[in-house]
Batch of 4 targets.
Target 1
Amino acid sequence: MTEKGIGAAVLRREDRRFVTGKGQYVDDLNRAGQAHACFVRSAQAHAEIRKVDVSRAKSAPGVITVLTGEDVAADKLGSLPCGWGITNKDGTAMAEPGWPVLAQGRVRYVGEAIAMVIATTRQGARDAAELVEVDTSPLPVVVQATDAGKKGAPQLHEAAANNQCFDWEIGDRAATDAAIKASAKVVSLDIVNQRLVPNAMEPRAALAEFDTNSGLLTLHCACQAPHAMRLLLGAFVLNQAEHKFRVVAPDVGGGFGSKIPPYAEYAALCWAARRLGQPVKWTSSRSEAFLTDAHGRDHVTRAELGLDKDGRFTALRVSTVANLGAYLSAFGPLIPTYLYATLFAGQYTTPAIHAEVRAMFTNTTPVDAYRGAGRPEATYMLERLVETAARELGMDPAELRRRNFVAADAFPYQTPVALLYDSGDYAGALDKALELADVKGFAKRRAEAAKRGMARGIGYSTPIEATGAAPSAIAGQLGARAGLYESAEVRFNPTGSVTVFSGSHSHGQGHATTFAQIVASTLGVPYENVEVVEGDTARTQFGMGTYGSRSTSVGGSAIVKACDKIIAKGKKIAAHLLEASEGDIEFENGNFTVSGTDRTKNIAEIAFAAYVPHNYPLETLEPGLNEQAFFDPANFNFPYGAYICEVEVDPETGFTRIERFTAIDDVGNVINPLIVHGQVQGGVAQGIGQAMFEQGVYDESGQLLTGSLMDYCLPRADDVPSIDSGLTVTPCPFNPLGVKGCGEMGTIGSTPAVINAILDALKDYGVSDIQMPATPLRVWQAIRNGSAPQAAE
Amino acid sequence: MSATVEINFTLNGRKRQLTIDAGLSALNLLRDKLDMTGTKYACGEGECGACTILVDGLSVNSCLMYAADFDGRDIVTIEGLRSDKGFDPMQDAFVEHGAIQCGFCMPGMIMQARHLADTNKDLTYDGLKRGLEGNVCRCTGYKKVFDAVADVIGIAK
């Protein structure tokens, strides 16, 4: 009955509609009489708006209305909200300038929306948008976070002196300074974790409708957390009460964090639909996606690792300047703080850690979560430092790591930076990776490559990640402005099938399959009899959505909790039907049995009895078999892994090819290995993208030079190696499924492994550092600039 | 007002006669005029392959093609991909290898894979990777995609 339950490589049930073109993404939806929106966007990175003249646009064919910042102010729309507040070192709150739906008097980045044209056709709206005349006077521009705090730098916001959002720290500064001073060896690195543009393949899109009779506003939008979207837009921006506001996230074509924030366009569409009483649709062009989807990363970091004479880490001291872009995106402040510096212990027992982070406003696209969100930046910094230390000490990088790992018997392990690690066997994962990657054979492969004139290198990374956000009380203490539980409803239908409603949202993760597997195993019902519903605030109860690899550990656990309530009620019903006492009823594989007898009732019979209660304990028990649960985890969970990358560099051209890539991950118990491996492989490809291909580049005037897929290099089929992925399993003790997040590990772990491998390949050329992305040009230049004599050749 | 043209073509096995704006793209004809939304817009400049269709058996980025050029041609979109037994083997293989995540790029990816299978008798695994280079997938890391296509074509890694 449960061969398609937990642990089985069940084929995804959602895939038939995707391979036949029947997926329903937002741009695939249309409504009779819908109008189309087009946004007039700033072509300047920083300017005062003197006048927005919409008269010509308004009289263009098919134009219904043109709305500007003045209309936003007149209708009293709220500012786009920030979901996380950070406290400065001195105890004051972070600077929190507002972010208007349409620009108010000033624009602060290229792409900021100034006006919205609504017309009967998409082309008509686009044509009319070109007739909106925006009279501006340009202001000086600052693009780099490290320039934003300098004296005389252009100032973006009155509410943020010196462009600073916050100046934050974590850890024990005095102990760390002392330990660094006392260290036998200190390794330091200057690291740029470059800006990335997420580029989910589905551009953001929205379709807003307003029912003038009922007052119900409905927004279909490409988002990862429809209830959070409704809460944030309704309460903070639109003044639209939740019972009159429905948000639907249907099929969503990738998110990677970029579809979490309550974007200006979504608010604007709702507002326009409400004003007009007419459906309004908008789909982002790829150019708009580059300019307006929240970007990721963009840190500049100085990091120092202290070691004693035996190679044991004594202290880690890190100073980072983070670029938040022009405005505070919904979780912008969270990324370079609690999702970043709390991971600085890595898999190691470093006793003293201190980090300080200054977050700055610049004339660039706002920065928010992008796959990994803070944790890739932390892991890249740490794993580069560790490998650099190994190289400088002449130690095997695997041995140096092993010497510093948290031991398998030391869990739960309290780090010096707030987190309590749940479980793990870090050396076990590394051993498995060393074997799968055939590290023993590397010297031979390197020698063979050298004969061909190629420089072969090997690089390691042993990443850890905090997923499953979050214990709400802790998150609240740290600045979260919402809870972070997840909800579920498990509803038996009268004839025994089950409908599951989850607050999570799948945009590639396969919840329709994995959540059904969880229910099939827990309730002992056939997998085929379970349907999963997500993504519609009118159908599911309030929940927090999908990001940070939380769906299975938090959302899945909520489902288990609801199933447990079903079983508890089922026992009462079974006791009545079987004329036994409740305490004697056992539940296994879908059957309620009187202990020690063969008297049994299947759960489908129990469900029928609950909905047709002719023989039922009505005096003590309500009819029906339908339970809800909220799961608020007691701790994060901590997936970890061991990654080994082997590259070959052509020293003549700098062209680098990944020859082998091994990823061992421990994500706790596995619900569906097919899906877990897919998540890892896709994550690794994105991490390789950061290491070798991707960079969002602004020029000094704030123009995004990498504003299309012709300029911004995404990993393509021929760029990604065949990834050998494997798993070890140490269950998480903090959730009933024993699972840890698997969605981001690949991205977090792969980037440093690739760069470490490239630097290993280049060590004979006197190259000890390289900035990402390590393009052929950069690798070639590094070889040319290296200290080795042959590099000059 | 832009000029209109009359076009006659075959779409997924069915003869069509339409009068369209001369400037309409093939992608917009399919999505906006014919409600065939399986073919996706993702970049609009021929860089990502999400809008791939087959024109007289060859793969084409429909975002870069004028709908007027459909005239006299045989067009197959993801909605028309079928075999005598039902689903095209490529569609089955993508499901069976777990090659899909968000699904958005997959109609284009499958059309390109079908084109590769139909037009390259001696395709190698490396050739297959190069042949899929024009189709960007942000979710999967491609490995299971390669496995699915290699399985259909019958080539070893």
Target 2
Amino acid sequence: MTSLLEEIRNVRQSRKFTDELVTDDQLATLLEVAQWTGSSQNTQPWHFIVIRDKDQLRKVSEVRGDAIKWVATAPLAIALVISAKGEISGAFDEGRVTERLMIAARMLGLGAGTAWYGDDTQRAAAKELLGIPAELSARSMVVIGHPAPGAQSSGGGRKPLSELVSYDRMS
Amino acid sequence: METSDIIEAMKKVRQTRIYQDKPVSKADLDTLLEVAQWTGSARNTQPWHFIVVEDKQTLGKLAALRSNIDWVANVPVVIALVFDGESTVLESFDEGRIYERLAIGAKLLGLGAGTAWFLGDEEEAAAKQLLGVPTERVMHSLVAVGYVDADANQLPGRNYVGRKPLDEIVSYETM
């Protein structure tokens, strides 16, 4: 495998970050990569909220008990607001933006993780904190920074390709 | 490749519908499958299965299911994305993640990729039957991969408008 593709293959969720900031240049690059995500009929059904205020990061990290407390260790989060008509296409586009940000972060020498607000009540709390209109969908953010030692979960490996892949037909 | 070149390539990832009549090498296909294999998922559930289809007759039948995806008949290879059917939102999110990894991976290998969707239960059921996918599984989309036909109009009948400016789509701290 070429080294570049190896880089993509090795993108992992980071959940713990050092104090080192993400620079304005790095943020600008990440936003441009997100901006150029493809979407169904080029509808671009998204809005991005950049969170760098430590107090705001801490508050949003507390909307789901202890589950996403790690968000408070990061210098930056980009909250994804999705306004797609369909549930499936909205979630698909959200996944596309997330993956682009995670890959771009790695290419810039950073790490990233996806954090989900949780159930309806927890989502509503996050939306209020972030000033997101109730009618728009907001489920997750991409959290970015310099991974701390041990930040990347080993991930438990992956199923072997022989189990995952069929040729011509599944069965 | 410098970091800035990679980022520029990522910004230029586009939906490809028209490909050259040139096969994708087994090495490139295997690389892309590995990139897909290592996609992250909630609690590492990996709720997916991939079906590689190169048979022209099968591709033609899949393409015939919906006029908007007739271009699938002429692609060198597709990877059908099959999910367990446990959670619409989480699996559609994962599907987007896989697609984007494949699209970026293809671009960096000098290839192009495109996403083709079945819409509605009937189309999906017919597609699943063609590929021997159990009815309880979910299959929304195919990922086409191949060498981009640079001379072709990739967006017939569409008015390509670029992207909204950042100041319209980005807020700071609150929306």
Target 3
Amino acid sequence: MTNHWNDIQHADVILCIGSNPAENHPISFKYVERAMDNGATLISVDPRYTRTSSKSDLYAQLRPGTDIAFIGGLINHVLQGNLIQRDYVVDYTNASFIIDDGYDFNEGIFSGYTAETFSYAKDSWKYRTDQEGKALRDPTLQDPRCVYQLLKKHYSRYTPEMVCEITGTAIQDYMAVARVFCATGRPDKAATIMYAMGTTQHTYGTQNVRSYAMLQLLLGNIGIAGGGINALRGEANVQGSTDYALLYHILPGYLPVPDFNHVDFATYLDQATPKSNDPDSANWWSNLPKYATSLLKAYWGEHATADNNYGYDYLAKKSGNYSFIKLMERLQAGGFEGLFCMGTNPVVGGPDANAIAGGLDQLKWMVAADLWETETSIFWKRPGVDPKTIATEVFLLPAASSVEKQGSISNSGRWVQWRYQAVEPPGEAESDAFIVDQMFKRIKALYEKGGVFPEPIVNLSWNYGKGHEPDIEKVARECNGQFTRDVEIKGTLYKKGQQVPSFAFLRDDGSTLAGNWLYCGSYPEAGNMMQRRGLEDPTGLEMYHNWAWCWPVNRRILYNRASVDPGGKPLNPKKTVIAWNALSKKWEGDVPDGPWAPMNEAGGKHPFIMLPEGFGRLFAAGLADGPMPEHYEPMESPVSNMMSRQQTNPAVAVLGKLCNSDKFPYVGTTYRVSEHWQAGAMTRNLPWLVELVPDMFVEISEQLADWKGLKNGDMVTVSTDRGSIEARALVTSRIKPLRVSGRMIEQVGLPWHFGYAGLAKGGSANVLTMAVGCANTTIPEYKAFLCNIEKGGKLA
Amino acid sequence: MSSRKDFTKDKAFLIDMTKCTGCRGCQVACKQWNQLDAEKTEFFSGEGYQNPPAMSEKTFTRIKFRDYQKNGQNEFAFYKEMCMHCNEPACASVCPVGAFEKTAEGPVIYKADRCIGCRFCMIACPFGIPKYEWSKAFPLVKKCTGCYSRVKEGMKPACATTCPTAISYGPRDEMIKEAERRLTDYPDRYIHKVYGKDQAGGTSVIYLTSLPFDELGFKPVTMRPLPGYTWQALRLVPAAFLTVGGGLSAISWINHRKDRLKQEREEAEAAQQPNETKED
Amino acid sequence: MTAARYVVNEIKGYHRFVKFLIALVAIAAVASLARFVFGLGPTTNLNDTYPWGLWISFDVVTAVPLAAGAFTLGAIVHCFHIKKLEPLVRPAIVTGFLGYSLVCIGLVLDLGQPHKGWHVLRYWNPHSPMFEVSMCVMAYTTVLFLEFLSPVAEKFGWHVPMRVLRWLEMPLVILAAAISTLHQSSLGTFFLIVVDKLHNLWYNPLLPLLFWVSAICAGMCIIILEATASHKWMGQPNEGVLLRTLAKVLPWTLGLYIGLRTFSLLALVEGPFFDRPGLTIAFFLEFGVGFVLPCIMFTQKSVREDDRRRAIAASLVIFGLVLNRFNVSMIGMMNPRHIYLPSIIETLVTLGIIAAHILFFVLIAKYFPIFEHHPETVDYTIPDSFHKLDGGPSVEVKAASHGG
Ligand SMILES: Nc1nc2c(c(=O)[nH]1)N[C@H]1C(S)=C(S)[C@@H](COP(=O)(O)OP(=O)(O)OC[C@H]3O[C@@H](n4cnc5c(=O)[nH]c(N)nc54)[C@H](O)[C@@H]3O)O[C@H]1N2
Ligand SMILES: Nc1nc2c(c(=O)[nH]1)N[C@H]1C(S)=C(S)[C@@H](COP(=O)(O)OP(=O)(O)OC[C@H]3O[C@@H](n4cnc5c(=O)[nH]c(N)nc54)[C@H](O)[C@@H]3O)O[C@H]1N2
Ligand code: SF4
Ligand code: SF4
Ligand code: SF4
Ligand code: SF4
Ligand code: SF4
Ligand SMILES: [Mo]
């Protein structure tokens, strides 16, 4: 989230697209409704009429996988109607930047494409620069090669009629959304976008998000109170887990993982650190060497020295894609001997789940650390297989749940809050920290006896006390960072072992260590900021700076320098996030995005400090599949792409095993319900929740039910080429067929919470989904596939 | 039964169904706080995701789902059923042993140790709230406790605490004022009635809705306090007793006297005619 | 011969019908056991929608008015001094006493916590019609018991109690009538609370009064039926002449009821009345066939004088009353989409209770002076032996009370 939960209440328009917060983020709805009480309009855009839609003022139905068309049309509406917030767009976005002549776009393909490798060479997607390498701009936005004009041209194809042909949305609904949302391009109006998995789980998921961000930039809605694009993070601590590098391609604090080309630390630093030739750009990431060095110091302590490149050679380098889908492919190919599953249940949650379960059969051993026996840990006795034929040795380590241990948790709004242990774990259950600690200590003992390249293990700095399990406070202190020797900075002496006050103090000379530069400041000398529970609210915007701690440096709204004009005056004085006090020469309000003066003053910096150019990107060269979002059809779709001849995302390899719409005529999508959690272990084992949603079901329209002769509650079989499941038909007017490209398309919705373990069992939706992911993130395309429905269960 | 007439400071629920997301956190929180067993359910029982099929000894509150089309528009609406904690509860008035009590705090509570299990409370409650432990040989009545154990310690009821959006809890007069404020401030959002303000003579649970009450499944109930209906007859009991008793005594005294006089007369006559026998 | 043996032999000698009754009672006893072993839910068709079923509707709400003969007749005989009807009083009292005892048994089965039944005495709630009825029923059962003790005392020749009871007769009768008035009507008060549930055809503020008046009618009709039946089948004396007198009162009481009922419908309730065909039929059966028709019949001398026709008319009233009580306590509150039908066990128990009633009546009549009770023939004097003991009163008393 650029903003945070409490801030949603300041919006004038709330667009829930690709998310269903009433069901999946229930507490957020407190703030949604508070905004509505203050006069805000709630818009819900979803293939299904959800519990969120039921509260909305405007509802627009769209076909799964057509968000770019939908938003592209809104961008077009804004540009054609000149509804942009002009000063904001000119001053703070790259709309005025002139693009290199080599850039082109034709029939759904951007310049630089190689069909054989499904990839783009991005050298033409760049700014035209002057001699100093500074990007050329045309603040009048007239230059035909400026981003603004390219954008206008690109999205002029997204007329309302065209959009609705693609999305299936009723045109009057669409125009109503366009009118309301696109009217917020004014300083005194804020619109927020709440999005989640309906957005990201597509082969062009990242581009979906991009399209939202672009729309918000054009309307001047980023950085302000009640604005932003807000990813409603999923698992309670998923924000923390990505901050701490749960993903394969990043190190803690979003430092890129080095790959084999980064032969030494210097090369890595050189290539990973972005450069800017604009002195007015903060280019925050230029600090990367300090963060990377401090991280290595945290990893290997005194074994990380300037002489050994701070242990850079100890660090594992990647040599390809280790995304979930790729790992599962390798698993199925027999590429692993053993597997650790800590707090995950891929046999229910992973795409093409039957194939994953089959892959597990080939393991020699598997360790599962979980609160429950899950489908994954009992894969060897799943329905239809004979346990005797499976030789895998499975260890189930009972894990302590979140309330049975203490530690920090980072919420979607980046607030890091301390949780205390409420009860002792039951039976033999132990915390994950204990499990990892024991694992490490035993592995280290083995390596101390010798082995190939033991140094990364035996030299690892691991000083978390002598208790039964690691002292979590010590871990938190290390994450914050410490001085490794006495240093004097700006006249103040910092002693060895002292906590680093903030990431501005981190060094690339080995004098500091920090487990995660983003969390610098969470545990300074003053103590554990994450434990704070102060209710003071001087801004009046419910930012609660003394409540817990928020990364970075307790800043509650990211890019807040874009909430003021270049003179530092709030764009909307009624909702002041920050304001420049010309007398004291200080910012007031939220912690600003950097200490520099406003743009117009000497030393002022552009607001988007994490980008080298300092401007919000309407045209973004970094992504794998194009600088501007373009509509493609999902990998499996019942219609041809009406926008171009390019059917699917050109940067995603087409799968072999695709369903065709003659055999599988219905568009399937998967989703969550309030009553269940994820792969279900935590809720399908709780009788109170099982009571509420006891069975796997599939939501189908009344028309499809008529056609198939189905009554509410009838058993049906849903199938794809990858497998089939049984489910109860939930016949409802909340899901409707859509008129797409001149014909009616039926869509069906399946919750994905069920499986064969636990108290309530049922077919897993992921038996149906396919293992193909987003070009940038490889998040699987869970949200759009083709399937068939027949009356009667497999057993019936 | 209390003879209290002022209920303005009782704690009351303001449940704004237009703000309810149907998340059912309340339903689960209630089961957790009251340690109620789950019901065995299958698929859904009712519209939308509704479950269980009805309130019961194991379910003190339930979200009723309405999922249908009206004028071509989707209606997906929710109604939280629970005990209304009536100001003048029918259940308490009919209970022969006074097992129900309207507490000063607001909740209507049940004293299981008193209950003889006659189920009159179930018949009497206009909202159909008290439920019975049918599976037991010596069953007791079960219903929403208003979380009295929490309320008397200064906490809010479990369902109100859990609810992210729809439930406010506070003094009844303030809740009514808040409800009326919402009706004025958001005239298009609501039907302009406050359910529970006057229903059954006023309750400690009041609702705002966007759909007409009957469409959501609210029970149509009288606006008079229910105990009044029986009391108007019961208050005549002493009078009836005295009238009948006294009347009959008088009548029989008169008749006896008549008889005695007659007999005396006859005896007197008989004395005058000593030979006459009575064997006729 | 052991006592058991004696009993067995005695039973062997009974009429087939009596044995059949014993069988029914035995089955009901087993069925009641099932209720305690398996609980109310599994053995009855009661549920949260129908917390009251056959047991309440018949065993309580209906049985009580059917036992109303005792107080009605008591009042007629002793208060209004229509002394010639006195021979009917004892059977009525026995019927009443049995009726109320069985009501108590029905309640024990139906109550969830029968062992706490006495709580009514401990925790008073005067606002509860049920509290009122319970207190009355307890008091009245005691009264009936005392009244019932007369024949017992008479049978065993316990003279002092006999005299005391005879002396208490008047107060007891008045007490009985007053208490009965209260609880007969309060049974109607029960249903004043279900203002939003009971159909307009039955819900009205006069319910208590209507219950009382109809109970009086039914009480008299039960006596007519009982006397007729016991004459016919038990060889008891024909009290036809007395019944004729009773039948003369009935058009008045029934007429009063019909008037009140019509008034309550027309003046006190707002329709709709005939929106549910099933209920409409139930109403006309109850009111037309069960009250209006017999009322007309009783105005006919031919009916009053003819044993059979009189009995038929009386049966119609009983039918009307039973249906009325079912309509009020069950049918009129029924949800058309969710009908309650009593379970086998509920039915067996109720049949058993009815059978027990008849059985005990027959047995009591067999062993105790119920019908033979023509008070003018009973010696209420205290035997000489007593006189000697307490040097008691004169012989005049004897003479006076004897011949009369
Ligand atoms: N109760 C509950 N809450 C949860 C979770 C849970 O399992 N249960 N999971 C947590 C996790 S890990 C996550 S990631 C979040 C996810 O939160 P959400 O993203 O809100 O979850 P979903 O229900 O998967 O998807 C949201 C909506 O996207 C719609 N949708 C499907 N396809 C498309 C599309 O192409 N475009 C658009 N615009 N919408 C589409 C679906 O109909 C669905 O209503 O929820 C978190 N919260
Ligand atoms: N079809 C379809 N598939 C999807 C999605 C979808 O929308 N559609 N959504 C995807 C998304 S967004 C996500 S996040 C994934 C989630 O997929 P998973 O992460 O595999 O699913 P969870 O059920 O959350 O698994 C978490 C497990 O951790 C256990 N657990 C809980 N607390 C602890 C703990 O403290 N320690 C340990 N060791 N274990 C613990 C739980 O019991 C549970 O079994 O699923 C994805 N799969
Ligand atoms: S389920 Fe838990 S994490 Fe999710 S909204 Fe509710 S309280 Fe928050
Ligand atoms: S709703 Fe029913 S149970 Fe609750 S207080 Fe009122 S009468 Fe009693
Ligand atoms: S069932 Fe219990 S609580 Fe209900 S009225 Fe009877 S005694 Fe009172
Ligand atoms: S007040 Fe308490 S008992 Fe009543 S519904 Fe709410 S949580 Fe349940
Ligand atoms: S917790 Fe609140 S919002 Fe959720 S279902 Fe209950 S009343 Fe509605
Ligand atoms: Mo997620």
Target 4
Amino acid sequence: MVNEWFKVVTLLNYAKMTDYELVAACIEGEKNSFEELVSRYKNLVYSVVLRMVTDKEDANDLAQEVFIKIYRNLEKYSEEYKFSTWTIRIATNHVIDWRRKKKYETVSIDDEENTVAGGLMANSGASPEDEYIADEQSRMLRDLVAGLPDIYRVPIVLYHEQGLSYQEISEITGEPLSKVKNRIFRGRKLLKESLMNLRRGGESYGVGM
Amino acid sequence: MVSACEKYGELMMKYMDGRLDDFEQMNLDKHMEACEACREDFAMYQEMLASFDHSNEEIIEAPEGFAAAVMEKVEDINIYFPTKIRNDGKVLDSVIMAVWGFLVATFVMGSALLLYNEAIFEWLTANGLGVIVAALQPIVDFAFGISSAIGGYTSIASGWFGTNISDFAIIALIIFVGLVAVQFYMSPKYAQVAAQIKKRRRKIM
């Protein structure tokens, strides 16, 4: 009974503590304090991961692995970054690693080069009519984003979907601001070209019918 | 012509960032009246932005049971953090806990005795615990002796409590004060711990 009560009291304390204090508590061996960190950042991590992999089950597994990674590396967290920034960095790196491994396992190099184009063809085939509702359109764009190379995809997802600033992204990827900007600009251009190809492909397909 | 369009391409990037001012917007519009390629580009960018905005509106939440699933895995991890400060302070913690428990128990019992000494003593004697009464009587007398020396404030206070608040409420209040004292003492001072760990971190890593 006393233990239960004590647990409730400590949980209430955790809720009042700063991120860094919680990290300190974890390091001191209070694993329960990590749960507070998980509930503070689970939605952030999950949404970043989901936006990068698009499959919900994969996203769930990956997001959990991200938190395990965070726990194992708690000591490397330094207060000069926001905890959210550090978290997103681990999440994006983890997803990139995962995709790299997955490609080695399942896809040959030939296929890899064709994924963007292949995705486009499949998409234009699947939607013969020219009318898109907003949902479909953003899903299509998400597929296009998923087809971008990682160096463009990560900053595009973080900027346009996650709403982070150039500065925050530069802290996450560890690249200078100018490089981040260039990658986002270049990523947008790639997306624009894909969109245009998609449109043209769709039109000529329609005319051909 | 190409370099001109490049310049307008940069304006479009500014548009995507939401930092295009009126003057730049006007320039871009003027150029697009003449340049079909840029007009097409801009339409695509607008579409892109609309789609991004649309997917931004959607709030993504982690699946149910996510934290529990993570914690289950964390429980299995045994990891030694070199910056850890307290070398398993479990012994010290339990000693401190015991001392505090004793103090709080004394406080709670003392308060009860002060307010209800007659009832308690009667009950104790009736149940064959007259020894305890004999041991406590001098202490209670001493306490009342002090309070009357101070000016009887204690009895005024206890008298006021006795007449104005129900017994149950007083007991609840005494226990509550005790619990708050324990909580206040036992709540970890992690702000200090965090500062110490930061120092150690600088040394070790």
